[in-house]
Amino acid sequence: MCGFFITGGEQHVRATKEGQEQLRIFEEQGLGDKKFFEGDEIGMADLAFGSLAWWLPVMSEIAGVKVIEAESFPRLHAWIQRFKEFPTIKETLPDRSALLTYFKDRRATFLALAKS
């Protein structure tokens, strides 16, 4: 799902589409019409996939793509918003600016390695 982040050019476009196909399955078969993956309350599946809510938008921003847009993934987008606003989760989220710095460095490393 993160191929868009570690590639450039034509591979970048293909990896973005492949990641979105995976997210579509995640949204339709995993989340469905539920508020959280296991129903109305956060459960183990939400916690297992919870990092998606915080790091994927940061990685997408750095890579210059919009992987999860509200129009394309309305249920998944809404889940991300609910998950991030859940009090216990909100209190423990890492600093966004630190993540931006970290992932900018990681992407630069990946792209440099791909060129060599």
UniProtKB/TrEMBL annotation:
Q: Out of the domains of life, which is the source?
A: Eukaryota
Q: What class of enzyme is it?
A: transferase
Keywords of the record, alphabetical order, are: Transferase
State the GO CC annotations: cytoplasm
EC number(s) per entry: 2.5.1.18
TM region positions: none
Q: Which GO terms describe its molecular function?
A: glutathione transferase activity
Instruction: Please name the InterPro entries in this protein's record.
Output: Glutathione-S-Trfase_C-like, Glutathione-S-Trfase_C_sf, GST_C, GST_C_Tau, Omega/Tau-like
UniProt domain GST C-terminal: residue ranges: 1-111
Q: What is this protein called?
A: Putative glutathione transferase
